[in-house]
């Protein structure tokens, strides 16, 4: 498939990443034994049963629970509802983590709340087609953080936001300009993002019940009634939206990746192969950003879901997977040791600096060998860009049974059909 076919010659490609039942999903990821698959809700005064539900799990929603419902009322509807006090420090940690994953695909990220953001991926062709990028982001957020998200793909922010609402939870949807009449016009006006209850009521009094009727309304009449918002209303109903993604984040402060293993692993040889694979992935992303790292952190999660992190500063900034691998193994040996089982391993590269600003000291041997090594790495990166991540792997990554340790690195397919998706306009 030609990547350029998915990117319009002009215009933008925007993703909207929307975390599903975010607060409840965070608690489920932290304590799956307590909350996975259960009817849960996050509310303030859970003990007094006077609090208002901030969000609830999809299991709870299927039992008639909804946001804004008083806890006491919700408990009558669903007696086994588990009400959780909010932990905003924990939510901010997970928010930073999922946005860091999204940020690794484009610096054009606009966070609109703790649980959603827009990404402009027009310049991110090196990572694949828009649907492939969305699949990668969705899969990594699930595998690394245990959180579901829905992603909308569109030529502007408005349609990307509308698209992310089409399939929940954990869906990916494309909404192009030519799809607007078929997908949106039959819907009531209050389902258009940006149209509140009062505006929808005013439109209804005018006989404008659906988005399609709004799209065909007289613009002058709308301006007379709503002022400058009249033009916005008509444009939005037609899928027209010109607001750019406003990047407000600083440059990358870290690049990381974690792998949840299919079974508990305790043999050092297996652990080394996992670290070798992760080192290769984070080093490759580091090179794509043209950065070097001077700090490294490893993450270990035990079978009982306790998470441990250990870090150190390296003497010389690096982009070399071999160096990252060696340092990760040293940290693991020092702070964890052989024989203890682990369920998840991760590496995060910290203290990042632009490659061109780094004055790296090399001994004579490195000075002679480094150009050859860099040339080989560039060739390997080019092969992966063209043929996929598994086009080149080192023997050490495979071990005796490569399917076991590389299983989690395969990109999952989705039910979304890829035919008839040649453009977004």
From TrEMBL:
<protein>
    <recommendedName>
        <fullName>DNA polymerase IV</fullName>
        <ecNumber>2.7.7.7</ecNumber>
    </recommendedName>
</protein>
<dbReference type="InterPro" id="IPR017961">
    <property type="entry name" value="DNA_pol_Y-fam_little_finger"/>
</dbReference>
<dbReference type="InterPro" id="IPR001126">
    <property type="entry name" value="UmuC"/>
</dbReference>
<comment type="similarity">
    <text>Belongs to the DNA polymerase type-Y family.</text>
</comment>
<keyword id="KW-0238">DNA-binding</keyword>
<feature type="binding site">
    <location>
        <position position="115"/>
    </location>
    <ligand>
        <name>Mg(2+)</name>
    </ligand>
</feature>
<comment type="subunit">
    <text>Monomer.</text>
</comment>
<dbReference type="InterPro" id="IPR043128">
    <property type="entry name" value="Rev_trsase/Diguanyl_cyclase"/>
</dbReference>
<dbReference type="InterPro" id="IPR050116">
    <property type="entry name" value="DNA_polymerase-Y"/>
</dbReference>
<keyword id="KW-0808">Transferase</keyword>
<dbReference type="InterPro" id="IPR024728">
    <property type="entry name" value="PolY_HhH_motif"/>
</dbReference>
<dbReference type="InterPro" id="IPR022880">
    <property type="entry name" value="DNApol_IV"/>
</dbReference>
<comment type="function">
    <text>Poorly processive, error-prone DNA polymerase involved in untargeted mutagenesis. Copies undamaged DNA at stalled replication forks, which arise in vivo from mismatched or misaligned primer ends. These misaligned primers can be extended by PolIV. Exhibits no 3'-5' exonuclease (proofreading) activity. May be involved in translesional synthesis, in conjunction with the beta clamp from PolIII.</text>
</comment>
<dbReference type="Pfam" id="PF11799">
    <property type="entry name" value="IMS_C"/>
</dbReference>
<feature type="domain" description="UmuC">
    <location>
        <begin position="14"/>
        <end position="196"/>
    </location>
</feature>
<keyword id="KW-0515">Mutator protein</keyword>
<feature type="binding site">
    <location>
        <position position="18"/>
    </location>
    <ligand>
        <name>Mg(2+)</name>
    </ligand>
</feature>
<keyword id="KW-0548">Nucleotidyltransferase</keyword>
<feature type="active site">
    <location>
        <position position="116"/>
    </location>
</feature>
<dbReference type="InterPro" id="IPR043502">
    <property type="entry name" value="DNA/RNA_pol_sf"/>
</dbReference>
<keyword id="KW-0234">DNA repair</keyword>
<dbReference type="InterPro" id="IPR036775">
    <property type="entry name" value="DNA_pol_Y-fam_lit_finger_sf"/>
</dbReference>
<feature type="site" description="Substrate discrimination">
    <location>
        <position position="23"/>
    </location>
</feature>
<keyword id="KW-0239">DNA-directed DNA polymerase</keyword>
<keyword id="KW-0460">Magnesium</keyword>
<keyword id="KW-0963">Cytoplasm</keyword>
<dbReference type="Pfam" id="PF11798">
    <property type="entry name" value="IMS_HHH"/>
</dbReference>
<dbReference type="Pfam" id="PF00817">
    <property type="entry name" value="IMS"/>
</dbReference>
<keyword id="KW-0479">Metal-binding</keyword>
<keyword id="KW-0235">DNA replication</keyword>
<keyword id="KW-0227">DNA damage</keyword>
<dbReference type="GO" id="GO:0003887">
    <property type="term" value="F:DNA-directed DNA polymerase activity"/>
</dbReference>
